[in-house]
Amino acid sequence: MGRFKGRVERAVSAGGVVYRRRGGEVEVVLCGIREPERWRLPKGTPDRGETILQTAVREVEEETGFRVEVEDSLGSVNYWFQAGPGPTRYNKTVHFYLMSHRGGSAEDHDSEFDEVEWVPAEAARERLTFATESEMVDRAMTMIEKRSQEGEAAG
Questions:
Q1: What is the pLDDT of residues 23-54, one digit of tens each?
Q2: What is the CATH classification number for the domain harbouring 147?
Q3: Residue 100 and residue 68: Cα distance in Å, rounded?
Q4: Does 143 fall in a domain?
């Protein structure tokens, strides 16, 4: 295989796994596009002067219509992609946070997505288009479960 001769650029974005408890079940927020069908976690790119954490909160709130509170870092994923036929390849890092739902309405989501839905966590893992985002839901569920067990032990 030949060496890549185009340009390489770094890209960064941030977002979150937003959750709530409903009955005994944990639900997470997914953002969907109808054509072609794609389901994602909310995320986006920083505005000038924003920290990664500020970006994550702003993007999640804009894309979902919900107010959120950051609870913890879920880590990051890194991948390569090429947008269109041009000679530029991108190396992208996406930082994700565990976020709890604090109000708002999915009806207020921005126009980037056709739908914003609460989905049971297990079903969300299956519906997400990208495996790296399913992994973030796994990490979130592990963290939520651990906190729940610690809370029961303390009580």
A1: 889 999 999 999 999 999 999 999 999 999 99
A2: 3.90.79.10
A3: 6
A4: yes
User: Which residues 6+ apart lie within 8 Å of 100 measured at CB?
Assistant: 18, 19, 20, 68, 69, 71
Distance from C-alpha of 32 to C-alpha of 115, rounded to nearest angstrom:
5
Total domains in the fold of the chain: 1
Handedness of CA 137, 142, 145, 151 (dihedral sign): negative
| Spatial separation of the C-alpha atoms in residues 62 and 108, rounded to whole Å | 8
Q: How many whole angstroms separate alpha carbon 103 and alpha carbon 12? A: 27
Residue 118's domain comprises 7-154
Whether the model pTM is above 0.85 = yes
Amino acid at 145: E
Note the pLDDT of residue 57: 98
Q: Is residue 1 part of a domain?
A: no
Q: Does residue 93 lie within any of the structural domains? A: yes
Instruction: Tell me the CA distances in angstroms from 54 to 27, 68, 101, 111, one per residue in order.
Output: 23, 12, 16, 21
**Does any domain span residue 2?**
no
Q: What angle (nearest 5°) sits at the alpha carbon of residue 74, between those of residues 41 and 135?
A: 55
Nearest Cα residue to 17 out of 80, 59, 79: 59
